[in-house]
């Protein structure tokens, strides 16, 4: 019972993605601004600095109200060492495709860990 109470308040999805991905997810209702005026999403474009992406990743993975962090795979590639170091179960990290960048399973850090567990 203690393990379920520790995660019961995790009810948000955070997103780091391109404009199209963020727009679609916001239209689906994932947008949230907390009491400190912090958003649960970051729109990344060609002008967004790597440090900004990494800071958003760190913030989203440390929030206690976030259950899932979605990140476009091509953006995850920009901060791959940081993404690969992330080992926590909550919030769960999922790499997703974007309109212009198809999903490549060979680059997915979670899939690599699963394959390693099964000896593949």
UniProtKB/TrEMBL annotation:
It is a peripheral membrane protein. The keyword Membrane applies. Gene3D superfamilies: ATPase, V1 complex, subunit F (3.40.50.10580). It is found in: Vacuole membrane. Its main location: membrane. InterPro entries: ATPase_V1-cplx_f_g_su, ATPase_V1-cplx_fsu_euk, ATPase_V1_fsu_sf. Pfam families: ATP-synt_F. One of its GO terms (molecular function) is proton-transporting ATPase activity, rotational mechanism. GO terms for cellular component: fungal-type vacuole membrane; proton-transporting V-type ATPase, V1 domain. Keywords: Hydrogen ion transport, Ion transport, Membrane, Transport, Vacuole. Belongs to the V-ATPase F subunit family. Subunit of the V1 complex of vacuolar(H+)-ATPase (V-ATPase), a multisubunit enzyme composed of a peripheral complex (V1) that hydrolyzes ATP and a membrane integral complex (V0) that translocates protons. V-ATPase is responsible for acidifying and maintaining the pH of intracellular compartments. V-ATPase is a heteromultimeric enzyme made up of two complexes: the ATP-hydrolytic V1 complex and the proton translocation V0 complex. This is V-type proton ATPase subunit F. It comes from Suillus luteus UH-Slu-Lm8-n1.
């Amino acid at each position: 019972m203690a393990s379920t109470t520790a995660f019961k308040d995790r009810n948000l999805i955070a997103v780091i993605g391109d404009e199209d991905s963020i727009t679609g997810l916001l239209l689906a209702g994932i947008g949230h601004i907390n009491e400190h005026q912090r958003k649960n999403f970051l729109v990344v474009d060609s002008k967004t600095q790597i440090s900004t992406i990494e800071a958003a990743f760190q913030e989203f993975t440390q929030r206690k109200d976030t259950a899932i962090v979605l990140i476009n795979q091509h953006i995850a590639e920009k901060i791959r060492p940081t993404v690969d170091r992330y080992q926590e179960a909550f919030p769960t990290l999922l790499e997703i495709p974007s309109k212009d960048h198809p999903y490549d399973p060979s680059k997915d850090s979670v899939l690599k860990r699963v394959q390693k567990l099964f000896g593949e």
